[in-house]
Write a structure and sequence with these properties.
The protein has helices at about 15-20, 40-65, 70-90, and strands at about 25-30, 35-40, 95. The chain contains three helices and three strands; from the N terminus they run H-E-E-H-H-E.
Amino acid sequence: MQQCNYCKARFSWAKVFVSLNVAYKPIKCNVCGSEHRITTFSRLFLSLFIVVPIGIFTYFVNIKSSLSISNAIIIMIVYSVIFILLLPFLVKYRSVE
């Protein structure tokens, strides 16, 4: 989990999760008050991690697989839930100076 660059206090999962879901809102450290923003690499990573698997999965469902539409939807819902829960562990923040 991400931590403050100055005082090394850890950000809570909920705080990072809310930040990601509110247009990458900056996080303020509860201990020292410093502001941290998501890195450009993390934004790019998140975008690719969302779009690429969906594209690959759609290709295999439509062309290469005999999965029914209901099974495909269930698999995508499970993937989405797991990915959303892991998001706060995957992103990196940097302090704003």
